Amino acid sequence: MNDRLDHDFMNDESRRHDRDDVALGAALRALPASTPARDAWPELASRIRRRNVARKAVWFTLPAAFAAGVALTLAWPHLHRPVVPPAFTPVATQVSSHAATPPVNNIDALQASSQQWQAWVQKLDRNGAPLDGRQLTQAVALQDRIGLVDLQLSAARNSSTTADLWQQRITLLQQLGLLHLQPYLVATQRPANGDHLISM
Amino acid sequence: MLVHPCSVDTPTTFQQTVDPDLIARLQRGELAAFELIYRRFERAAWTLALRLTGRADVAQEVLQDAMLKAFERARQYRGDAPFAAWLRKLVVNEALMQLRHDRLHVIEVFDDTLAIDESPAPWMHADAATLERALHRLPDAARAVLWLYHVEGYTHVEIAEQFGRSVSFSKSQLARATRRTRELLQPQLQVEVTP
After folding, report:
1. How many CB atoms lie within 10 A of CB A132?
2. What's the rounded mean pLDDT across residues A62-91?
């Protein structure tokens, strides 16, 4: 009997709380919308225009860089020297194991690693075999993404975001480097199904 | 000081459809098209950011950053959900990111040993301004969870994912927010409430 009374009491309590919750939801949804104190559009439009200008600058430099790269690859047999990539992952591993706000010296390490990878990619770009049309498209896409990361880095406000962006930059550079190595890998391995070695 | 162009006719919610042509223009990077979309969703996005963060200066940043992402990622919008829902998600993500970076690491622990309050729900009779003040006085996590659950329709699982916490975290924060709101709206209890 007591169990039954307890059960009924609990059900009543539960129903009352559900009713209160529904009423709270309704009251919150009925709150009037707010209006920002100032018009944020001019500032937003200005930020977008600045970013567009920066992006166009990146795009403007790409054809010139590729033209130079193509010209240099024509002289490839005379220029070829073995290019050794930087060691894979130590900085990435260190940083990813840290808390949300990595110390500045980790960002320095990521920057240094990024520079190493960039130098490696530049060497490959200068001395490597020419890319086919699809690889070239992939390279342009990767460079575009690196350009975007650079833009985001210039606007990053905290160390956690900055570290993430540097890590992204390193990953993209690694992908770009591997893309430049693809002609050799394809030449030596020649997979039967013709699949590309890098999935983008 | 720039004068805000919002009028009383400006839409205030995300319950709006956007013309596919306008979206296509946005995806081509047309700033004029984006301004039209921005104007339509500005108040809704601002209100959502303000409700989640509880601070006008942070809400302003959220509005700017979320809208900037909307412009830059417009080409990623596939049309499989309403554009307004996609935009609202960007605002929620941005607001929670701000909270995580700024203050949310201080999460108050819910004490479930306190007695259940049997008094009638005070929000049934509270005016909007009083309820809004109470909302702004809630701890950050509790306020955000309360709003996401009751107004944006998130489930506890979705809230837990957004916060990177457990489902019980979401439930306890909601219970805490409800109880604290009740306390804040009952004048005789306010002296016991820590702001």
Report:
1. 12
2. 59
Render pLDDT for A167-191 as a digit per residue (tens, 0 to 9): 999 989 888 888 877 766 655 544 4
- Would you kindly state where each structural domain of chain A is located, as residue ranges? 53-189
Closest CA to A134 of A57, A194, A193, A44: A194
User: pTM of the entire structure?
Assistant: 0.57
Chain A residue at shortest CA distance from B175? A21
- Judge: B123–A42 Cβ closer than 8 Å, yes or no: no
Residues 114-173 of A with CB under 8 A from B: 158, 160
Q: Which of residues 57-116 of A touch B (CB under 8 A)?
A: 100
Task: Flag whether B3 is in a domain.
Answer: no
Structural domain that includes position B47: 20-102
| Model ipTM value | 0.80
